[in-house]
UniProtKB/TrEMBL annotation:
Function comment: Removes the formyl group from the N-terminal Met of newly synthesized proteins. Requires at least a dipeptide for an efficient rate of reaction. N-terminal L-methionine is a prerequisite for activity but the enzyme has broad specificity at other positions.
CDD domains: Pep_deformylase
InterPro entries: Peptide_deformylase, Peptide_deformylase_sf
Entry EC no(s): 3.5.1.88
One Pfam short name: Pep_deformylase
Superkingdom of this protein's organism: Bacteria
Name the record gives this protein: Peptide deformylase
Enzyme active site: E141
GO biological process, one term: translation
């Protein structure tokens, strides 16, 4: 089932998401639906708050980037209860977009190295280290389970310059190619 993607202004996007345990109802179905939703929206990452679920769950599939980053074509992860335990290295600026902020792309500074702990869908613990683009994607999605959006990381001037687009999202007048759930 394809979920609607919650857009800017939805309160669930500003809440710190709750951890989940092995008894979480229909977890495998939720993961499958989030994965299908991500593919349908031509996205590379999706956090549960973006589909209205305030839980610590992220799906990532970088295969869409095969043409420009072929080394990432097989990178897929489901992160249950992720916790970033280290951010380090240089901060690099790169353009980001977000399915919850259709039509908005801004340059965002992110650390180029991270260490993260998480559980897989069977609740097996993992600790992994990521660099470069993968580290960026994980930080972006992790922000969602912490109640943040990438626009929180841009300068006040840039934020002012995109205010018209943010207002369009709030009013429900922004168009995009995937199913969304707006405030209005």
């Amino acid at each position: 089932m394809i979920y609607p993607i919650y857009t800017y202004g939805q309160s669930v996007l500003r809440k710190v998401a709750a951890p989940i345990d092995p008894d979480y109802r229909n977890l495998q179905e939720v993961i499958a639906n989030m994965t299908e939703t991500l593919a349908h929206a031509d996205g590379i990452g999706l956090a549960a708050p973006q589909v209205g679920l305030s839980i610590r769950l992220i799906v990532i599939d970088l295969s869409l980037l095969n043409d420009i980053k072929p080394e990432l074509k097989d990178f897929k992860r489901v992160l249950v209860n992720p916790q970033i335990i280290e951010l380090s290295g240089e901060k690099e600026n790169e353009e980001e977009g977000c399915l919850s902020l259709p039509g908005i792309h801004e340059t965002v500074p992110r650390f180029n190295h991270l260490v993260i702990t998480y559980q897989d869908p069977d609740f097996t613990e993992h600790t992994e280290t990521f660099d470069g683009y993968v580290a960026r994607v994980i930080q972006h999605e992790y922000d969602h389970v912490e109640g943040h959006l990438f626009i929180d990381r841009i300068s006040p001037i840039r934020r002012q310059l995109i205010q018209g687009k943010l207002n369009s999202i709030l009013k429900g007048t922004t168009k995009c190619a995937y199913k969304i759930k707006t405030v209005k």
